[in-house]
Design brief:
- Helix content is 0%, strand content 27%.
- It has strands spanning 5-6, 20-24, 26-28, 45-49, 52-53, 68-72.
- With 81 residues, it is mostly beta strands.
């Protein structure tokens, strides 16, 4: 997948004022990489556009203020994600 970004996150992440987040072509290589979604307590809008979910079995989005969740998949290459 050309142009993708692989996330390597710190053990603790907090974006305490982040209200909107759009990630496009981001690869989540394992379950721990999705912890990004738990450090955004005032997140209102989350868009995941054509992201890769390699070896991810469960995604938890702990955003109590979340109003809009959009997940767009790449229609041509489901097997590559």
């Amino acid at each position: 997948m050309d142009g993708s970004v692989f996330l390597k996150l710190a053990s603790s992440i907090c974006f305490s004022s982040l209200r909107s987040l759009t990630l496009k072509y981001v690869v989540f290589p394992h379950d721990k990489s999705t912890k990004l979604f738990s450090g955004c307590p005032v997140l209102l809008d989350l868009t995941l556009d054509k992201c890769g979910w390699w070896n991810v079995k469960c995604v938890t989005i702990a955003a109590p203020m979340l109003e809009l969740l959009t997940i767009e998949e790449h229609e041509d290459n489901h097997d590559n994600f």
